[in-house]
Design goal:
This protein is of the alpha+beta class. The protein has helices at residues 28-39, 120-132, and strands at 51-53, 60-62, 73-74, 77-87, 93-103, 107-108. Helix content is 18%, strand content 23%. The strands form three sheets. The protein has a two-stranded antiparallel ribbon. A two-stranded antiparallel sheet has the order 3-6. The longest helix is centred in the last third of the chain and has 13 residues, at 120-132.
Amino acid sequence: MADAGIANTGQSFDPASFGYPAVAGSFANSYNFAMGNLAGLLDLVTTQSNYQIATSGSTASLLPAGAILDREFKNNEFECYLQDSWHLQRRITLTIGLRHTLLQTPFEVHGQQAQPTVDVDQWFKTRAQQAAFGNSV
């Protein structure tokens, strides 16, 4: 509403066009949003778009609004545990174990996932280098 404006424009929702006092300039933006909400005007529309990635991964097609995007996630996990107990004395038992766990990052098997298009390692290195020069780039 701030770009289009209602307050002090002489249009139908402007109080000055009906003989009422004009909207203060410092309050014009707030007035525009409030009047737009009361009138049911859409000043901002947000949509969510889903794309179906081709099997090659190089192209994508826009899905219609409300279409369900099939996803199939997979992850690789492996875990093993070895344990042994020794009775050192009648009242003392020593138990020792070793556990190995492999938990890989889950991924979408058809490539339908977001991932950075920049080298994140290089991005952080560049940020550190620029910070050393006092730049906030």
